[in-house]
Amino acid sequence: MEKSNRHENRKNEQLEQFRTDDQNQALTTNQGLKVSNDEFSLKAGVRGPTLMEDFHFREKMTHFDHERIPERVVHARGYAAHGEFEAYGTAEPFTKAGFLKKGTKTPVFVRFSTVVGSRGSAETVRDTRGFSTKFYTEEGNYDLVANNMPVFFIQDAIKFPDLVHAIKPEPHNEMPQAAAAHNTFWDFVAHNTESAHHVIWNMADRAIPRSFRMMEGFGVHTFRFINDEGKSHFVKFHWKPKLGVHSLVWDEAQKISGKDPDFNRKDLWESIEAGDFPEYEFGVQLLPEEDEFKFDFDVLDPTKLWPEEDVPVTMIGKMTLNRNVDNVFAETEQVAFHPGHVVPGIDFTNDPLLQGRLFSYTDTQLIRLGGPNFHEIPINRPVCPFHNNQRDGYNRQTINKGRVSYHPNSLANNTPAPASPAEGGYEHYQEKVEGRKVRARSESFNDHFSQAKLFWNSMSATEKQHIVEAYSFELGKCDMPIREMNIEVLANVDLELAQKVAGNIGVTPPAEGGSDVTKSSPALSQENTVKLPDTRKVGVLIDNGFDGKEIMPVLNELEASKMKYEIISETQGKVTGADGTELEVTHTFSTTDAVLYDALYAVGGPDVSKAFAKNAAKFLGEAFDHYKAIGAAQEGEKWLEAAKMLDQPGIVTTGQTTDFTKQFIEAVSAHRHWDRDVS
């Protein structure tokens, strides 16, 4: 025992020199240089581009980019599919990008992801979602690295490592996984109020999408379109799902995480395999350069959106995802996106978050994918030829012939040679830039709350209630000082919101505060989204002895409406109707759950067991509490009557209507029935 203790003491002595306590210390670089500012990257003027000489930013971001191997630091949990994009031609007056010319079809690869969790985390967590698209154009690869929310937490890329450190599991105990409901994240939010707008999006239903197929995508940043005449327009990018924007409810999302942690990826895979190809329209908001300062917010601020009522979205093409991956690692995990992968006609702005990402993404791929040749991995290779003087390095696949690998040269006729803009060579927009070298932020970025209030004003009463509940859940997981600080911040957005959340989490409600913004944007509310029956999934609770003449026309009509159904019964095999009709059982009650369906159709049979009836009641109660449509016939009507669920919105029975199938499909299409009494 004594020998063992001596060994342990020696080990502790060896480790002691590496232990550090950073509290109450001055902030320094890794070289020991004291840092005077850690909030802003070094720019040429307060609204100018980030400078390469910013060694502090590069050191901080490089270290952050290399913190995890081999999975991504953020967006580790992802799933992807192949597809095709076809341009409408409506963008041609504004950009010379070849893939946006009318009728041009371009292969694409899209990766959807959660941000916070590791590769093994669940998919229905409350989180921002990634929505990244690689266009394999004839002019080179173009990557639109988007999210399902139009704004981000921070305004300057130098703060990104701090944000991710705060939202990731806390390092002393590695908890919680894939969740923001903990002290360090909300401590960060309280001290970085520029996050207020993105946070309220995260507390809204957008953070728990029903499906990748029912999720918007946004480029977040302001980019530029450049046309053939060299004229510039500021542009924001949008993906609009043809099925509309729909979400889960929080209780449902939590249960799905346990019942099927692969819920979203399975939904995407199965839809494509079934030929129900997800479709998204590609839209842009365009702003003439001369209108840069016409709004009450800075158009370069990544924590701000452009209200669609002020700057309409013009549709410029449609994307269809039509093929699943063959190998998740080779494709989904090895794909490398980068906002700096652009084509002629698309350029950058001085958005300080975008400027930092242009450095960070290449730096990240170097460690994740084993060196500088990640572009040679099949999923990343462009469809057009590429030629340059880059050579060797880890995982080099190209076998370059000849002895020349420099430019200019005479031994290879001065090739490969730069191409002029007329020949398709990329030319940066010649924006005039002047300013002192400063670590600062433009005063036009100082408004942190007005658009958070705009978002709140735009929500329906139900959506507002969900936001209150989300803040209450998240902050309720934090220590009291963190709760109090965040209520103070929230009071700057909306006083009623802050008071309701405060009352729920045991904090003294604020007496005053709130933004005076009264404007709203109806486009932000999911209440106004497209509502279709297409691909909605119905669970059919059915047993032997059902009336096939009544039930089969309903099931056939569901299929004709592009809906899907699965037969759920007590045992696997077949269930047989009184008229001899047979249905193959998809699931038993133990292999599926009500939360995995958009609606239920309760049928039963004349001789169901007590166990069947008990399970059916459980399924119906779950669906009812999650505001889903429920249709019922035969024995199913009796179950609803016993549970006192009849005469409620979204409940359709054959005994109450002569046009059951039509009304049931309409009820399912509505997605949720929020005016239902679930008390």
Automatic annotation (TrEMBL):
Cross-link (3'-histidyl-3-tyrosine (His-Tyr)): H338-Y361
Organism: Planomicrobium soli
GO cellular component, one term: cytosol
Domain of life: Bacteria
Binding positions for heme per the UniProt entry: R72, R111, F160, R357, Y361, R368
Cofactor dependency: heme
Active site: H75, N147
Presence of keyword Metal-binding: yes
Keywords in alphabetical order: Heme, Hydrogen peroxide, Iron, Metal-binding, Oxidoreductase, Peroxidase
Function description: Decomposes hydrogen peroxide into water and oxygen; serves to protect cells from the toxic effects of hydrogen peroxide.
Catalytic activity, reaction form: 2 H2O2 = O2 + 2 H2O
Lineage: Bacteria, Bacillati, Bacillota, Bacilli, Bacillales
Protein name: Catalase
Catalase core domain segment(s): 28-415
UniProt cross-references to PROSITE patterns, sorted A to Z: CATALASE_1, CATALASE_2, CATALASE_3
Annotated region described as Disordered, given as residue ranges: 1-23
Gene3D superfamilies: 1.20.1370.20, 3.40.50.880, Catalase core domain
